[in-house]
Amino acid sequence: MIASRILAMLGVVLFGLPVGAAVDPQAPTLSGIEALHVLSAQWLVAVVDLRPDVIRAMDARTDGSFTRLRERWRESRASGKPDWNCHRTLAEMRQRWYGTARIDAGEAALDRPERWSLVAMDGSKAIPWRLTRAAVGVDGGDVAAGDGDVRYATYVYLGMPEPCVEGGDYALCLDDREVARFRFSADRTISRAIKVNQVGYRPADPMKIAYVGGWLQDLGPLPIADGSRFELVDAASGEAVLAGPLVLRDRISLVPAKPGEAADPGKPSLTGEDVYTCDFTACSRPGDYFLRIAGIGRSWSFRIADDVYGEAFYVAMRGLFHQRASFALDAKHTAWVRPRFHAAPIHECAHIVFPPGDPHVPKDYLRFDVIGATLDDSKSTLDVVGGWYDAADWDRNERHYTVIDDLLALFETRPDAFVDGQLDLPESGNGIPDLLDEVEFGLRVWLRSQDDQGAVSGMVEAHTHPAIDAPVRYAFSRRTRYPTLLFAASAAHYARLVRPFSRDLADIYGRAARRALIFGADPARNLGTIRIPARRDRGLGEAYEYAWTESDRPLVPFLIAARTQAFLNEGDEEDLSGLPGLIPLLPDPGVHPFAVTDASPWIGVSLLRDVGPRLAPKQLVTLREHYRNRAFDLTALTEGMPYRMTWPRHQDYWMSWGASVVTNHNRFLFAADAIKADPARLRAVLANAAAMFGANPLGMSWTTGIGECYPVVLQHDWSTQDGIADPMPGITIYGINEGAYQQLRNQVWSAADEAGAPIGFAPTQPRPLWRRWSPHPSHNTPQCEFTVHETMSSTILTCG
Question: In what order do the strands lie in the sheet with 209-212?
């Protein structure tokens, strides 16, 4: 049977029930399938795990050798001496027999109507009139358990000829054997077709909207009756407090062509759904609620309250705390304990951290070859603590300044909202707001890297991607002007904000920021053209070199930020003297060469809001217009999507590595609002929040521990080792992108028969774009991994 952890993943792929979620009091009783999900009174989804049957079929084809070899592999692995010949033979067996064994086990016959029946308590029996099936990847495979690289289950979509009766009790049978029992009730039965913001809504929010829709694989969208209405129900009393119509928003539309291009009929659907909306904006009374729709079911419960984002903010910030680098997580502060790793000295190397927009970045630059060739352990820095890890990467890098700058901007916007003791940190009780304590932890590693000249490193990295406890050496990247200016700006900003709480910390970071600015602003520190030594095979092979010329132009944004923050911290007018000549050279923040996941929007905030009055107004006109226009364009995008979010409707590309984490767009919207407020932007911010917290086609929150339905299988090295079924909370993963990983396509959706001919186990039409996600802890990195800057930081910013 599939473990509860895996059932959770089944749910978040296609309407499932996650570990850690509130379980519906009328959840089905299961006795032969892994899960039963209700889409409506007429459509059910049965989740079937045929792995025991497939293993029996494999044994029948191999005279029992498959199970004997699985046991041998399990025993050898447990002994610490894996038998890789055994492992290879198992792979060869699966390659030859697995597709045929799946047929033998009856997987292809699960969509035969006569095998299924729905029996009412009066004994009446109904056979599905429409049904289909899909093989769905749910986790990484376990060779000893009979899997290949992917663990999967079969989802069977069952359309009954008549809808279930309200309040009726039913038994679902497979081959005349009862496999599930449930009661259909619009008050009690969670329908996975109703998608709400699982964090909740605030009373004064200008938009409180949920969505209704479902996808039935090759059978098309979930049918929803004309004239359907919803009710907003007080969860305490069971009374409806508001009612309204389901309003059709999108009729299973395809991804349109890019502007100016011809239509492409081969494009996938956006969602696979006919998307309807439920608008309950008129309800501003605080309380616990759910949506009820006759013939469909009910939603997850949610709150309407001023503080709904408070708990989500806490969870997201705790997620960041759990990523602290070279730091022990102890039982006093978390259930997800972890010893301190990477306490050894940090050495030096010749790796260069290049600024965005640098025209001279060497082609095909391989940092592991550089670090492996140049790591110098004769130079070292002791006790380097600070910064954050990413998913299974133990480096610390300059991109994490996004987190630091987001937190500083958040505190500066709402200083009274963040206090000491708020986040249960080891530093809590020191008189400094916990938010600023986390900022200081992020800065500490770079402060430790500062040399006698004031220069600061931009990366702590090894020559490879090691395990967390691997005995490899780490090194600081070469100290250049770019990372030094990053530190100068953020350290000065932190010094200014922490001063009311700790003059000592303000002085330490203020002095360090000044030294960094002196180094970074000095043209004489430009390296010119240099040769960067490298060796192939991560330092073990043939020697070679990269040529790089350091250019001043890419440093302009960071020099502006460092001078601006130095002035705001110390009040020295001399820091502003060079700005008029730099501002015309500033690239537009938030767009190329910057990234949607970086902190560039905050550069203009300090310029326009804080020091703008000291500069000639005409110097800032273009920058001010960029913020206004870019924010307007983002806001306008929300109405183009079936599920409102700031995403171009036509864009089915460049969705990876945090791009589809739409709360990243909130960073620019918040920055534009800090310059000049516009109430219209709040609707876009709320739409992005809702899209990330459950109001999306999959009906899931993309952040662990937030909401009722969230990922539990993700690429996070320590969560797979800690013995806790749920992952560490507060992790926002990459999520949707435009593709599907190779092992899912080649081992789950299709497999070869014994003659090598392919057998299909999934519908052949393209999957809807915004359903393209599949859980796997290692092979599906572009969807299941995360970083603190690309995915987690914007969640914190949005909730804060």
Answer: 194-195, 209-212, 274-279, 247-251
Q: What is the pLDDT of residues 710-757, one digit of tens each?
A: 999 999 988 888 888 889 999 999 999 998 999 999 999 999 888 888
| Pick from 227-231, 241-245, 320-324, 719-723: least confident | 719-723
Q: What are phi and psi of 179, to 5 degrees?
A: -120, -15
For residues 104 and 165, what is the distance between their CA atoms, to the nearest angstrom?
Answer: 37
DSSP secondary structure string, 6-19?
HHHHHHHHTT---T
Where are the chain's structural domains? 4-183, 194-306
Cβ atoms of 417 and 434 within 8 Å: the answer is: no
Which tokens is 519 given? 């180094």
Long-range contacts of 227-231 (CB under 8 A, 24+ apart): 228/276, 228/293, 228/294, 228/295, 228/296, 229/293, 229/294, 230/278, 230/280, 230/291, 230/292, 230/293, 231/291, 231/292, 231/293
Segment among 25-34, 118-127, 369-378, 768-777 with least mean pLDDT: 25-34
Phi, psi (5° rounding) for residue 257?
A: -70, 155
Q: What is the pTM of this model?
A: 0.94
Which residue shows structure tokens 């700006």?
A: 489
Residues 6+ apart with CB under 8 A from 379: 347, 348
**How far apart (Å, rounded) are the C-alpha atoms in residues 496 and 568?**
7
Please name which of 410, 510, 494 lies closest in space to residue 799, comparing C-alpha atoms: 410
Task: Report the distance separating Cα 424 and Cα 333, nearest Å.
Answer: 7
Q: Which two tokens stand for residue 754?
A: 């014994």
pLDDT at residue number 3: 31
CA atoms within 13 A on the CB side of 15: 28
pLDDT of the residue at 4: 31
CA 211, CA 687: separation in Å to the nearest integer? 12
Q: Is 246 helix (H, G, I), strand (E, B) or coil?
A: coil
CATH number, span 194-306? 2.60.40.10
